Amino acid sequence: MSELAPSILSADFTHLGEQLHTLEKSGTKVLHIDVMDGAFVPSISFGMPVIRSIRKDCGMFFDVHLMIQEPVRYIREFVEAGADSITVHVEACSDIQKTIDEMKQYRIKVALSVNPATGVDAVLPYLDQIDMVLVMGVEPGFGGQKLIPQTLEKVKELDRLRKEKGLSYQIELDGGVNRENLTKIIEHGTDIAVAGTAVFRGNIRENVRDLQEVIAGA
Ligand code: DX5
Ligand code: ZN
Fold first, then answer.
1. CA neighbor of 123 nearest in space, from 164, 78, 74, 171
2. Where are the catalytic residues (predicted)?
3. Strands (E), 39-127
């Protein structure tokens, strides 16, 4: 069954601890953590201190999405801060293989991400080395955007490729996920659906329950 990964980018940071407890109590297993550097994307979010701090009191799987230039420079620090998986953007790496090799030094899941304008061919040479591909459903940088429907074709293509090649990488779709489009997202082959606004706007417990219901019914 597919998994919901709430993105803390949309959390209320004055109540972050409580909100994480609510997620955990609601059955959330994967927490999506968006790191932005103001260079690869226009916005800046947060970094290691926040991750290190929430790690102390949180048993969820930390799915760290690095929207930063040359992430190879910071892999060790994010591992030490508590990442369970790290996703880097192919567009942000001058040497993708070197970045994968660096990630493979640690006991983490290794993932590559593609922006809406980047084709699946950019990750093709690495599919047999990685644990996950993150397909951006919106331009990276901000929560609350609308899913670009064509990005689902890449999810479908990646699903087809893994069957064809006998590979087992997971497919994550990030951006614009809501109650209405989640079934379609899963039907295209998504294993992990990231949701920021759809989880944190309004009642978190109810939102998670509703989204998990959609997943269970898909
Ligand atoms: C966007 C981030 C997403 C974002 C999703 O750059 O990578 O994870 O938080 O937010 P929503 O679900 O609001 O589109
Ligand atoms: Zn993300």
1. 171
2. 34 (proton acceptor), 174 (proton donor)
3. 61-67, 85-89, 109-114
* SS3 assignment, position 69: coil
Which position among 12, 34, 95, 121 bears the catalytic label?
34
CA distances from 52 to 9, 36, 66, 77, 90 (A): 16, 16, 15, 10, 25
Q: Does 37 qualify as catalytic in the annotation?
A: no
Burial of 168 (0-12, 13-18, 19+ CB in 10 A): exposed
Does the CB atom of residue 89 touch ligand 1 within 6 A?
A: no
Instruction: Write down the domain spans for the chain.
Output: 3-217
pTM of the predicted model, to two decimals?
0.98
174: annotated active-site residue: yes
SS3 state of residue 62: strand
pLDDT one-digit tens code per residue, 166-177: 999 999 999 999
CATH superfamily membership of 3-217: Aldolase class I (3.20.20.70)
Q: Complex ipTM above 0.90? A: yes
Tokens found for residue 127? 């599919």
Asked if 173 and 155 touch (Cβ cutoff 8 Å), the reply is yes
Q: What is the DSSP letter of 209?
A: H
Distance from the alpha carbon of residue 83 to the mean position of ligand 2, in angstroms: 14
Q: Nearest-5° angle of CA 105, CA 67, CA 172? A: 75
Q: Residue ranges of the alpha helices (H) in the chain?
A: 16-25, 48-55, 75-81, 96-103, 151-165, 182-187, 197-200, 204-217
Write down the catalytic residue from 37, 63, 174, 191. Answer: 174
